[in-house]
UniProtKB/TrEMBL annotation:
Occurrences of domain Pyruvate carboxyltransferase (ranges): 6-273
Pfam annotation, one family: HMGL-like
Organism expressing this protein natively: Roseobacter ponti
Gene3D superfamilies: Aldolase class I
MF-aspect GO terms: hydroxymethylglutaryl-CoA lyase activity; metal ion binding
GO biological processes: ketone body biosynthetic process; L-leucine catabolic process
Keyword Isomerase: no
PANTHER family registered for this protein in UniProt: HYDROXYMETHYLGLUTARYL-COA LYASE
Recorded superkingdom: Bacteria
Record's protein name: Hydroxymethylglutaryl-CoA lyase
């Protein structure tokens, strides 16, 4: 019996590769994205228009967007922390963008060199401009359970930032367990607070698998009505400014898990497995 649709938002080419130590050539990234493009995803995050001094791995993002073969029905997404990033992402042809905030001050400072309030001020013109041209903007909230600098984060703090991003016009709020500190109980408590301000249908779970609990956290989120999950093919990933943030939960594992539970992901597991093999090889070289 089908339990209905459930979407995986593929973040491997961005969240996955941004943290790899080896400088990965644009051609390799393009090959991975082209493989992912035929797997059945609606959205794939492939680029990041941030300071190349801070995240060297994402420096070739415009070339990546120029190099891919676009599949019909797939939106290719890019991170944009400020107006400079927005302008560059548009010029490069991103189909949607994402602003990224944190529920904790410590990570906000370390990641984007701004406190939470200041980061939201930087996002305001981005959302304003995007609204004029109907460009979809996703909003991330990092450290939804714990911050590597400030420690435990309250569900109320997460709800406050999620509420602000949603009110500004983000079409979906992705909740990042940046260092994989979540447990099903903690995730459920956090979602209970966030659901009061953003409908569950506009939420996504973005769970890093640092402690091997991401899949249980997905299950807890499913029971709270969340039906979109971010994942990285091959389990690639981590954030350079969050010590201990291991890879995102692996796309191939989430796809198999959701299918076994009875959800329709529209994904082709064989194609994803091929992409996972490519992703793991990129890491291993
Ligand atoms: P800043 O230092 O506050 O800004 O940076 P600034 O205006 O003082 O500029 C500093 C330098 O960056 C200048 O260059 C600017 O030109 C340049 P310099 O004069 O020193 O040569 N700059 C830019 N360059 C390219 N693109 C831009 C841009 N803006 C300024 N858009 C900024 C603020 C956010 C840019 C910086 O702190 C930065 O790039 N941080 C990196 C953030 C990042 O990419 N983090 C990883 C992604 S977030 C993540 O992984 C978490 C997530 O997965 C969810 C989860 O797991 O929780 C989403
Ligand atoms: Mg992440």
């Amino acid at each position: 019996m089908s339990l209905g649709p459930c979407e995986i938002f593929e973040v491997g080419p961005r969240d996955g590769l941004q943290n790899e130590a080896r400088e990965i050539p644009v051609a390799e990234k393009v090959a991975l994205i082209d493989q992912l493009s035929s797997a059945g995803f609606s959205r794939i995050e492939i680029a990041s228009f941030v300071s190349p001094a801070r995240v060297p791995q994402m420096a070739g993002s415009a070339d990546v967007l120029a190099g891919i073969t676009r599949a019909p029905g797939v939106r290719y997404a890019a991170l944009t922390p400020n107006m400079r990033g927005y302008t560059d992402a548009l010029a490069a042809g991103a189909d949607e963008i994402a602003v990224f905030a944190s529920a904790s001050e410590g990570f906000s400072q370390a990641n984007i060199n701004a406190g939470i309030d200041e980061s939201i001020e930087r996002f305001a013109p981005v959302l304003e401009e995007a609204r004029h041209i109907d460009l979809p903007v996703r909003g991330y909230v990092s450290c939804v359970v714990e911050c590597p600098y400030d420690g435990p984060v309250s569900p109320a703090a997460v709800a406050k930032v999620a509420d602000r991003l949603f009110a500004m016009g983000c079409y979906e709020i992705s909740l990042g367990d940046t260092i994989g500190a979540g447990t099903p109980d903690k995730i459920a408590r956090m979602l209970l607070a966030v659901r009061d301000v953003v409908p569950a249908g506009r939420l996504a779970g973005h769970y890093h698998d640092t402690n091997g609990r991401a899949m249980e956290n997905i299950d807890a989120s499913l029971s709270m009505g969340v039906r979109v999950f971010d994942a990285a093919v091959g389990g690639l990933g981590g954030c350079p400014f969050a010590p201990g943030s291991a890879g995102n939960v692996a796309t191939e594992a989430v796809a198999a898990h959701l299918a076994a539970l009875g959800y329709d992901t529209g994904l082709d597991i064989d194609t994803i497995e091929k992409a996972a093999t490519m992703a793991r090889a990129m890491r291993a070289v």
